[in-house]
Specification:
Protein name: WYL domain-containing protein
Shape: elongated
Organism: Clostridium chromiireducens
Pfam family, one: WYL
Number of strands: 11
Number of domains: 4
Keywords: Membrane, Transmembrane, Transmembrane helix
Distance between the termini: 68 Å
InterPro entries: CBASS_pafABC_assoc_protein, WH-like_DNA-bd_sf, WYL_dom
Structural class: alpha+beta
């Protein structure tokens, strides 16, 4: 890390600057620091000793050591390494591409994330994403969701039963008493995964957070009959359509087999002949229909038979529309 000249030489500022440099994983050298702050080397040595004592008192596995190879001081065995500029850049790219937040929340998140790194790195990243931020188009609902996401997240941790007031796709207002299980993200939206009270024997339902107008705690807690695994659920649910477990068997004809396996994390190739694959996968609900139909003639569903018939009917209806 390049050390810039600085006229501020008071002790508190000096120690904070040195500590910040060390926290970024950089090496500090007494001579360079003494020239920067216009103090003698013994003063810098005392500053480093104060930092060493601070680390010893507050961090179990960190210490200030002298690196003989690089001829400078560094913090060794850092529990949490400072995030790098390239990692910040990756986070920002994903955040912008997700379009999950309204403009005001997106701007706040970008400011908070980018402030972690130094000013020079900030300038570089701002220039790299300047055009994307200028053309950023939020989702049509334009609703802030961070607060309700956090508040419901606390109810999930405490296993609080809540009543949610939400709008369905057609705009109809509804209320449900639910057991909140998880918050997940998929295809632009955040969803509350929740068990509807009185339907504990059914699979969890999905409620888009931006469609939840309000919720209230009912001062009751729920007990999970079995541990809910949101990571496992995400492997089996497409487009956040809930439903019963379905075992798919289909033929894929094409060369992009990686894309198929990425779409279905539970998929297994049962047979392969050149560019033709027999694949089996486990999913929840009929959200898979959207994807299967989008693949045209490269996918042929073999089973279950009921779902195969449904696809045939949809294809026939599409054919009739275009013939008209």
């Amino acid at each position: 890390m390049k050390i810039k000249p600085d006229n501020k030489n008071d002790k508190s500022n000096r120690i904070l600057v040195i500590y910040d440099i060390l926290r970024r994983g950089c090496i500090v050298k007494k001579k360079e620091l003494s020239e920067k702050f216009r103090v003698n080397i013994r003063t810098i040595q005392r500053d480093l000793e104060e930092i060493r004592i601070y680390l010893s008192d507050n961090y179990d596995n960190e210490e200030l050591i002298y690196d003989y190879e690089k001829r400078g001081y560094k913090i060794e065995n850092q529990n949490l390494e400072m995030i790098s500029s390239v990692e910040i850049f990756a986070f920002i790219k994903i955040l912008i591409e997700s379009r999950a937040f309204c403009k005001e929340e997106m701007e706040g998140l970008l400011i908070s994330i980018i402030s972690i790194i130094g000013k020079q790195e900030q300038k570089v990243i701002k220039n790299l994403v300047k055009n994307e931020i200028f053309h950023f188009q939020p989702l049509s609902h334009k609703k802030p969701i961070l607060k309700i996401m956090w508040d419901i997240g606390q109810c999930i941790l405490r296993k609080e039963i809540i009543e949610i007031k939400f709008k369905k796709m057609d705009g109809e207002e509804k209320k449900r008493v639910v057991y909140p299980l998880a918050i997940v993200f998929s295809e632009f939206y955040f969803y509350l995964v929740a068990q509807i009270e009185a339907y504990e024997d059914k699979e969890p339902a999905f409620f888009r957070l931006d469609r939840i107008d309000s919720f209230k705690m009912l001062n009751r807690k729920f007990i999970e009959k079995k541990r809910f695994e949101d990571g496992e659920l995400k492997k089996r649910v497409l487009f956040m359509y809930g439903g019963e477990p379905i075992h798919l068997k289909f033929i894929y004809r094409g060369q992009a087999i990686e894309a198929i396996l990425d779409r279905f994390p539970t998929a297994k190739i049962q047979n392969q002949s050149k560019d033709t694959y027999l694949i089996e996968a486990n999913v929840y609900g009929k959200g898979c229909l959207i994807w299967l139909l989008s693949q045209g003639d490269s996918i042929e569903l073999i089973s279950p038979e009921e779902l195969r018939k449904e696809i045939k009917n949809k294809i026939e209806n599409m054919k009739n529309i275009y013939e008209e």
